[in-house]
Amino acid sequence: xxxxxxxxxxxxxxxxxxxxxxxxxxxxxxxxxxxxxxxxxxxxxxxxxxxxxxxxxxxxxxxxxxxxxxxxxxxxxxxxxxxxxxxxxxxxxxxxxxxxxxxxxxxxxxxxxxxxxxxxxxxxxxxxxxxxxxxxxxxxxxxxxxxxxxxxxxxxxxxxxxxxxxxxxxxxxxxxxxxxxxxxxxxxxxxxxxxxxxxxxxxxxxxxxxxxxxxxxxxxxxxxxxxxxxxxxxxxxxxxxxxxxxxxxxxxxxxxxxxxxxxxxxxxxxxxxxxxxxxxxxxxxxxxxxxxxxxxxxxxxxxxxxxxxxxxxxxxxxxxxxxxxxxxxxxxxxxxxxxxxxxxxxxxxxxxxxxxxxxxxxxxxxxxxxxxxxxxxxxxxxxxxxxxxxxxxxxxxxxxxxxxxxxxxxxxxxxxxxxxxxxxxxxxxxxxxxxxxxxxxxxxxxxxxxxxxxxxxxxxxxxxxxxxxxxxxxxxxxxxxxxxxxxxxxxxxxxxxxxxxxxxxxxxxxxxxxxxxxxxxxxxxxxxxxxxxxxxxxxxxxxxxxxxxxxxxxxxxxxxxxxxxxxxxxxxxxxxxxxxxxxxxxxxxxxxxxxxxxxxxxxxxxxxxxxxxxxxxxxxxxxxxxxxxxxxxxxxxxxxxxxxxxxxxxxxxxxxxxxxxxxxxxxxxxxxxxxxxxxxxxxxxxxxxxxxxxxxxxxxxxxxxxxxxxxxxxxxxxxxxxxxxxxxxxxxxxxxxxxxxxxxxxxxxxxxxxxxxxxxxxxxxxxxxxxxxxxxxxxxxxxxxxxxxxxxxxxxxxxxxxxxxxxxxxxxxxxxxxxxxxxxxxxxxxxxxxxxxxxxxxxxxxxxxxxxxxxxxxxxxxxxxxxxxxxxxxxxxxxxxxxxxxxxxxxxxxxxxxxxxxxxxxxxxxxxxxxxxxxxxxxxxxxxxxxxxxxxxxxxxxxxxxxxxxxxxxxxxxxxxxxxxxxxxxxxxxxxxxxxxxxxxxxxxxxxxxxxxxxxxxxxxxxxxxxxxxxxxxxxxxxxxxxxxxxxxxxxxxxxxxxxxxxxxxxxxxxxxxxxxxxxxxxxxxxxxxxxxxxxxxxxxxxxxxxxxxxxxxxxxxxxxxxxxxxxxxxxxxxxxxxxxxxxxxxxxxxxxxxxxxxxxxxxxxxxxxxxxxxxxxxxxxxxxxxxxxxxxxxxxxxxxxxxxxxxxxxxxxxxxxxxxxxxxxxxxxxxxxxxxxxxxxxxxxxxxxxxxxxxxxxxxxxxxxxxxxxxxxxxxxxxxxxxxxxxxxxxxxxxxxxxxxxxxxxxxxxxxxxxxxxxxxxxxxxxxxxxxxxxxxxxxxxxxxxxxxxxxxxxxxxxxxxxxxxxxxxxxxxxxxxxxxxxxxxxxxxxxxxxxxxxxxxxxxxxxxxxxxxxxxxxxxxxxxxxxxxxxxxxxxxxxxxxxxxxxxxxxxxxxxxxxxxxxxxxxxxxxxxxxxxxxxxxxxxxxxxxxxxx
Length: 1480
What we know:
By secondary structure, the protein is mainly beta.
């Protein structure tokens, strides 16, 4: 930015210079320690041109006065400014000016030990522009802001926030008790997560201001800003008005540092000053100046180009006049790379005022800058550049692989600043050239090279935690992969399944596998659309041992099981379920997998167990309960009957026997004694007996069979009477139409009916019909084409039936004709419309189409259709189209034609806008489409009502205008109505897509009512009043509940100005709207919100006491309440309950609650049958009066990151239920373990629940693979369970281990050590954890202390049980303390002296004596008599005695006397005496 010249024109006679004025006011800017005195704002801005906007924006806060943040001495302020490409250089300069404005109030207190400023600019990556220590005065800070370089790039706000937290407010940079502020300025939505990033700042008590501009995401920024949001979140819709935020935000920033923003009056200047060139283009200069004082009537701006020697070219001098309120101008039409002299002259009513001059140079046209490869992949290169200056028309981009001679080329729009080259070859160098295109100028291109990435495969693919139905895959990821494709299936190639895994994952759990099955598993990285090399492995799932029953008989049971490869044998054991019989058993070899138990009792239940024998152990399957069968008797059939007699054929039927496997039918001729027998399936209960003779008696017996057993036979006697009824004659078939025939015969006199059986010989289906005896014909319909039919007709006279008369015929449809007059025309670039003349009798039409060498597509249409539009075709292509008629399943000859689709789509108009709008007319304009022949303008009311126009009526009106027209007037519209206007382009008979715009015609609304108010209200009534509107013919009053509901309305006459609304809800909040009616015009609504008087609400509803299974509630009673309805609901499962309490109640204890659940309690007063307003409170049941130190060990590796969220929720819910945290209550520690252990939270840092939960929420699963549980237990014992970490003496200690796999090191011995130290150990197992190993780790190896779930998603099932265990104070005898060892002097002959070990624990003293080796032994003693602490050898203990004061010497001499005495004592009674005297 260029400042104005030092022209003496602005320092006219009688006017003090800016520096002199500042000196008079007490502000000397010539020194580094600048102090802004009262009234110095204008002078400060005059010598700092970039701050003009700041000075102007502060006018509402103080008239032409300086702004100073007083009473502030220290503060650390960091600007985090968005430098992404969406801002642009011009807007970025406005941001710079805004930041300078925020620095101004602190300019006099910037120093090394005072207020410090830092600045980070971020886009793709954050960059430190200057640190706290770089600039130690306000002038240098503002200069550094003014000279910032604009970055460009993406918007990664989250990365910027994390960067500020780590690099400006880290442990080494932070100043204790100093106000800390971060000011974020951005114009867009972040492309990464900001919520977790800003938490780190807020937890360090850093105030975060969020300033959003234009396209910034307001919801996102409200989450970033500190609370209250109104004080820390600011937003403007345009960069040009960013400066308007300065007055308010300067006050807020000053207040956050503990200061007060103050202003002071100052003089005004008589002429314009501070001429600056805020923007220089290739053909323009943008200038700005400080307004002149006095009654200015306007300004004249003169500008003239200068020669190379600085001489003005007077012939090219130009001048513009501006209004008195203008302080900026844009000078256009200038020469490029030319220096101009610009003069601004103040104009007054009768004189010309002072002027200010300056020189500015237009820019040289330049090509693109910062042309680079932003991102590379195996098949793409993402390019980015910064646009050059001037009116660029577009870009030409060429690229080719290195070594090739033929380049590919493409054109880009002028707005492009990035481009993605795709479909490239992996691992290949490309040469890329970018040519900017300027009118009438040639600019040198920019050339870069880029290399695509290689397709790398994953490494170290392995399978872990293999079970019978699952296995966990893990691998080492590769850079650049967009996903990982996991594929698995049987080796045979069957049941192949695949899934794409997120690139952030490097493990996946395969589930739903088949037991004892070998799988081939592959993992391949995905690079966009390409699949990289595959890594594969083969693994077999485990076998499930299952004992199953194969067959069951009355005295036997056959069993089967799986053969286990490493088994040593099998043992079967069985016994009766009831009784005291000893079990029977049998041992079987490894090759056997079936066995039949024999000699069993029928109908008896047996318990059977299979033991699989391994080396040194045996594993039993669950007990199988099986019952032997009972030999049932075979039942007899029933209802044996004749269902049909036809000539010499009889059809038998009967009711079957359940469970029958077959039936035996015996037919005996009673005349000659011959018998015939037949067996049929148990599912058949009918049989036809044929070739029976008339007047002979037959005996039939039918019996049921179950296996080889036969039931009792049911008999039936049959005798065929001679046939007395004649069959029909002259039976013939006459065709009757498509699928129809008529059967005709000569009727039989006295026939009562005819029975017809129609048989489809092709599929064997039958259909029976019966018609009256006076008929001699029947028409059969819906017969199938090409099928042969058999028809049998019998005559019925009463119960007698004649022999059948038969006829056989083939059903053949007539041939199908062909359609005619087939035509096809193009109706669009991808559409063809076809029409044809149909065929009489057709049941449908088949339409086909294809490219000349393409695949055919077909559609079947109904018979009443004779046209069809084919869509989705290729533009400018020839299609072969065919249409054939269908009659049932037959198809007629196809008729074909060819047609060509339109070459391409008709374009759409652009920049459709409203030029002018009146109450009854609208003028719209648009940018046309080249080559169009016409435009169609359509308009309709948005509410769907009919529009009356000068052209035509209807819901939508339209008008065709010439293709040379680009505007249109729509007349005869209604005022105050919204219209939808559409414009489409036409080329011949082809029409493009419409472009629409919505416009509302203006209207002169009626005069609204005034002073709408509530004059009276009660529980069900509100009375309103208002001031009448002049000229009103009536009023419309509407009301509804403010929370939603049906709206009611009332029309009122013009002379009414009060109205009473009744039948409202007590305590209801209502919205009232009233409009004034003038003819058919309605004024704007005047609204008011009012409430009826409530019946009553419970106050002071609170939780008085919380226990692990109950909550006590109290409240202030409600007058006139007859009872209270108390309800409570669990947030875990939604289970709710309620209780009605008497009206005199003021408290209630809700019991039977689940520990750790969060409950919502709601109470409503009852007034007989009317319910009052509800009041709610939420509380969680927690432990009370429990004092423990609880450490959690969490397996936090990348391999099990899939369970991270479930574990976080589990820990949060569990710890939230422990009640109060802190030094006087329960303390919590957190440890992450893998192959190593890391502390996440120490006991002495867990006094605040919110802090603990924040640590849990930020817990990351980023550790490498490893499961060293033993090392983790040892780490917890030596570090977390130490006094330095906050471990308290005498307080129970608890270790909770979270495991999802077996330990990779020695854990049982480590667990014994920590349990011996008095620590209570619990374990939570999931996924692949070893349950038996966990049992041996916990306290007393008691399985009750092991909490196990199948996977992490089931952890909520354990919360109540674990919390219950933690709420019970651990019972432990405490650790045996290390002995205080005292070595006696050596014996006369040099033998080792006797060592006396003293144990002091909770005030109790014990001792033992033993012979030890010579040497230095450690002694541990606490001189207050509580614990032993490390000092040197007992006899060296008092060596520095001469340096102690007399009181210390007396105390330690007494201790030494006790120790010496204990060496000589052999009696425990004497020892007890010493303890009673409290010598220690």
